[in-house]
Specification:
It is built from ten helices and 27 strands. The protein is of the alpha+beta class and 436 residues long. The strands form seven sheets. Strands 14, 15, 16, 17 and 18 form a five-stranded antiparallel sheet that branches. Strands 3-2-1-27 form a four-stranded antiparallel sheet, with no helix packed on it. The protein has a four-stranded antiparallel sheet with strand order 4-5-7-8, with no helix packed on it.
Length: 436
Amino acid sequence: MEEPSTTPSDDVVGEILLRIDDVATLFRCAATCKSWRRRIASPYFLLHRQWPPSPVVGFFTKRRPGTETTTTDSSSSQLAFVPLPGPSLLGNRPRALSSFIHSDNAAMAAVADGATPLATRGGLLLVRLYSIDDNLKRKTFSFPLVFNPIVRLAVCNLLAGTWDMLPDLNCQTRFRLGNRYGCAIVPSVAGDGSPAFKVLMIGEDKDNFNLHTFVSGEASWRAPTKCFDMTEGRVLSLENTGAAVVCGGYAHWLFVSESNHFHVLDVDVETGHVSLTKLLSSIREGFCQVDLDDYDAAMAHNQRVLHDLTDANRLVTTSNGTRLLLCTYRGRHLEIWTRHKSGDGATSWRHTAGETDHKLTGLIQQLERPQCIWSGERSGTMLIRECPGERVFIAHLDTGTLEEATDQFPDQARNGIMPMEIDWPTYFMLRLGGSV
């Protein structure tokens, strides 16, 4: 009589893998054998698995050495990754950026902790690097000021532990403090199935905004592309963070013009084609001068402004990443606008008027001097700081709720943080799909 098999069937294995909650454990399972790797990377598995409710896995911030980071450097501050509570592919404790670098790359580790984070996507982190001399120059100024056209960038694959030094970007575009510039890091797969990426940088060059593109595997940056003439449309400034929102194969940045209208700059990630679309006007209320003849009214107006949400004009996407959203605080109300595309490619923006906007507006107006310090690209959230009390809240755009999260963000992180989001189905497809 034939002995019954003790090996579980493929269906049983598949059901077990679907029930693994922790993405770190699931990724280790994918590395166990080729059959499990193929199953986990399959479209069916990626579609039916229950992924974490939020793609935010942690954030980058400057921290003092010794505050739970893994380095012993005695410099004034270090760029570090701080994970959110729960299992993490990057560890469960804060760690300095240099800890992601292999020990045989001492030169890179020496400048990594002083790097400036620019953008993150899919487990990749784009940073700007400064040498020791550059760091000294950033803290001391002499006149006349000399413009250094050299920009040094690097891409860290935090999950694989690899670093890529990009060729120097030598240009006249003002990628420096005091000038708004935008950037994007887009993961992809090379022709041989290996991980790849593309870096986009936009910035002001005299009267023009130019696009600079680098593709991994190439020896140099591609020739710059003109985005728009700033004098023609009077498009003056890039709104808030310079990191792009990527949706539907395009990188998007939000601008505001001299006439106070929003504009969205769209860059086709594949072809580099650039377009600029004018949207609705931005209604911004500011403080008014106190007139003794109308003192009470002026003070009442200024008191209302204290409860208005600043820096709230943000581009995000729907939670499934299929549609682009514009969040704006106009006329003392939070508004969410959704971009729609017709069959002929024409785009239109519609205000998602509903209870969500109204609920969040009422909750935000109960805070004193609230400020939006970050918006999740895929998580449908905004991080709001209440300035006097330093409390931190997460605004959930889909449910219209406000959740206090002060304990999740240490004191050092409340100013200048860059949360890291990972779209897990896309990440597993890119990391596992090319080699199954």
